Amino acid sequence: MPADDGTRLLQRLFDRLRGRYAFKIAAAVVVVSAVLLGAGALAVDQVQGSVESDAREAMMSSAEREAQGIDGFVEDMNGYTRRVSSSSGVQSSSEGRIRDELRANADMLPEYVVEVHYYDMVSNEVTVSTSPSTEGTTYTESERPWAVGPAAFANANDVRSFEPYKQDGENHLGFVSPINNVPGKAIVITVDLSDRGALLTSPVDGGNMQVVSTRTGKVALASNSDAILNDYFLIEELSHLKTEVTETVAVDVTDDEQTVVNGSAVATATAPIDTKPWAVVVAAPESQVYGTVGDVTRTVLLLIAISVVGLLAVGGFVVRDVNGSVDDLRGYAEAIEAGDLDVDIERTRTDEFGQLSALFDRIRETMREQIAAVEESAEEAATAREEAESLSTHLETKADEYEATIDAVADGDLTRRLDPESESEAMTAIAESLNETLEQLEALVVGIQDAAETVGERSSEVTASAEEVESTSVDVADSIEEISVGTERQEETLATAVAELDDLSATVEEIASSTDELAQQSAEIAETGAAGRDDAGEAIERMDRIDDEVGHTVEEMRELRDEVERIGEVVDLIDDIAEQTNILALNASIEAARAGEAGSGFAVVAREVKDLAEETADATTEVEELIAGVEASTESVAEGMFAMEDDVEAGRAVVEETVATLETIVDSIDDANAGVQSINEATDQQAESTQETVSMIDEVAEVSAETASEAQNVSAAAEEQTAAIGQISASAESLSSRADELRTLADEFEAREAAAAESGSEVADGEGPVGGDANAVGDGDGGETRAEDAVDEFEFGPTDAEASADGGSEGEGEAAPGDD
Fold this sequence. Notes:
Elements: H1 2-19, H2 21-86, H3 95-108, E1 113-120, E2 125-129, E3 160-161, E4 165-167, E5 170-178, E6 185-192, H4 193-197, E7 208-213, E8 219-222, E9 249-253, E10 266-273, E11 278-285, H5 286-289, H6 291-337, H7 352-410, H8 425-510, H9 515-595, H10 600-674, H11 683-746, H12 753-764, H13 783-793, H14 800-805, H15 809-813
């Protein structure tokens, strides 16, 4: 329950906050003030961190600069020491010359150089020095850290510096370098650290800067000479000073018991010295290091307080002004809402509220004008309603008339037209568009009728041509059969001639015994030779007729091949017409589907036309296959006829040679009959001639046999050609039957005589479906062009893809024309 009470309390506060604009502004001021306070706290924290970081950076930078300075001091002293130990004077064996060299070099060294010694590292004795009181003195390493032996140096060029030491109350530091080419001897330069220590000043008031040895933990260099060689006062707190320091670090010492530096916690910064195991340490009270943090914090808090107070003041002023202005505006709105359009609206202000007041004034004037306009519009609306009712009645009447006409067109009456006279321009445009569509549809149907009729006529012509070719093929077969019979008869005659020649040979052998019998036989042989010559002449005449018949048949075969090619073109045309008809039926189905029930009859006819187009396409495909077979057979027969023509020419040549031979035989028999008295003398020669004649007749007989065989082959090819022509004739008759069916379906549409006459004139001019003559199939103005033009002119509306984009279910169910 307490939770519910708390929720209800919050809800009441929220509702009250939403109910007054002043509360919203007050809440916004409170939120902004809280944000400012939070941002101020964050800024204070960031400023504190930034100031502390800057202070640490300043201390670390100061320590690093001093470490670099000490590095430079040590390097300079190492260079001075090495220069003196390398001079030629100190390599002498004369102490006087060595003393002079040391004094000369001491004059060129800095003022903080105290002494220059010539030191024997073996005996630990100062042999020669710029300070005569030290000559002959022996030192130990505890007395003088620089009193080391030769083993302390890595090589003759090495230079070393050591820890500070006390001499006569002063803090000194020694630098040692072995002398070249003088074993066991070294040059020692001592410097006073008081001058160099005076340069160590802290960057923070109340702090100090000292150099601490990380080996001993003692102060090696400081502005206060009393601190040198004493333990560094923070050595226990700064544990990193007990090891070699390799990087600059800052550490805050916050031990409550630490009271060394003004009784305050200490901030330190340590920087390593590269040339010696020393480190520069800067230490200062945190109150001095971070003293500016409090000042910055107070300044930021003061700015935040001023910002919050100013924001509250501005918020109060804005709330007061906005509340008064909103109350005035609410009063204007309530008065206008109550219908008081004469309310006094103040328009003296130029700010946003003044603009709103002016807007209320304009709204009041606009409402006055709109009320007057509404009253006027009510009268106009009544008049418009009456006109709309009249127009609606007119449109319903026109729609009924258009529906009756469209129903008649759907039933196949393409002579009907819509009356474009209407009070509605849209109805007039629809009537004109539909009339134009019906004109194109009527022309297309008439074109289909004419194309079907022309296809039927061409199919009849093809059938007649095929029958004529078939008759010619039969004649060719008969002629070849006669050639075969004549060739066989010729072969028999040649056999008889061979027998007669055999008798002649026997007679020649017996001629010596009976001259009278020889004369009689010679006369009989002369008569037989004449008969053979006549037979040979007749054979030549028959061969001439065969040659003519073969040439005529070859020409007819060429014409037949051309006719078959033209039939193929006609079939291609019919196939194109069927495809266009199929597209037409598809588009008609789409239009019928869009027309709904009014186009159901037209849709039935469109489906019939589509089915007929598909059957026609199937029939043309079969005819194309048959024509392909006929073309192959025709080519085969043509090749056989061409070969037979060559064989007939060869046979004719052989027969001519036979005739020539027979004439020679007849002449020889005449000569034999005339020279019967001298036959005894020429018996032997005549016998030889007779044998040669027999050989020639045998050759003629062989040629005749080959001619008979080729004639039989040609006869068989002619019979195959006759069978192929029969198949062409049957396919043409089937095509003619399909064309009759297409024409019968197209005749179901009733077209005007003018359209039919126009279509007929186009056919007569060679622009019909198939052209104006027998060769129109290959022309550019043929039926294929006419059918394509008719389809291109007749636009049935959007394609299937456009119908699908419009969301039509009928268009989505139809296949694209290219898919049929």
